[in-house]
Specification:
Number of domains: 1
Number of helices: 4
Distance between the termini: 14 Å
Shape: globular
CATH topology: Umud Fragment, subunit A
Helix content: 10-25%
């Protein structure tokens, strides 16, 4: 969840996770996976625009796969014109954050719909209103995935498998 501030202004530390680094040796990334990737997967011009070093690690949820068309129109995400409902996390992504009537969750610097290339993936943050993700920096390139988040182990209040 990244570092964020509590209502009293104190810093809340982000989740600490265990990443399955073997997962993508046996199968490709799947929609809904919480993926870990190097920021070198982001287009260099966009990295410069958002001042992202090429050697950072990001954690985001995978939405769009190579060759698909992605559109975000709150409260829904669409793949190839069809509302995304599987895995179930996508049905609640906007409801959880009460985004149905809040502007700003749709695609940012993209047209209303983006066509992914043969090695491009589209990622968003679960905390979608406060996430620097593909809506800003565009699709990421495959081959930069380090693994899939499997378990949150800290803080104890959030321990558990990642869905």
């Amino acid at each position: 969840m990244g570092n964020r501030k509590a209502p009293d202004g104190s810093v809340l530390e982000g989740d600490e996770v265990i990443v399955n680094q073997w997962n993508y040796h046996f199968r490709g990334p799947r929609r809904g996976d919480v993926v870990v990737f190097e920021t070198s997967a982001i287009n260099e011009a966009k990295r410069e625009e958002y001042r992202l070093p090429a050697d950072e690690i990001y954690v985001k949820r995978l939405v769009g796969l190579p060759g698909e068309r992605v559109s975000i129109r709150p409260p829904n995400i669409y793949i190839n014109g069809e509302r995304l409902v599987e895995p179930p996390v996508f049905k609640n992504m906007f409801k959880t954050n009460d985004l149905a009537n809040i502007p700003g969750a749709e695609l940012k610097t993209q047209p209303d719909e983006i066509q992914l290339g043969t090695n491009e993936f589209y990622v968003v943050g679960d905390n979608i209103m406060n996430s620097l993700d593909s809506r800003y920096f565009g699709p990421i390139q495959g081959g930069h995935f380090l693994g899939k988040v499997a378990w949150i182990f800290w803080p104890p209040s959030r321990q558990g498998f990642v869905q």
